[in-house]
Amino acid sequence: MESFPLPHWWSSGALRHYFSTRAELLAFACEQVIDQVTERIQGLRHTGDPAQAVRAILLETMPVDETRRSRSSMRTSPTSRASNSPSSPAS
Question: What pTM value is reported for the model?
Answer without folding.
Answer: 0.57
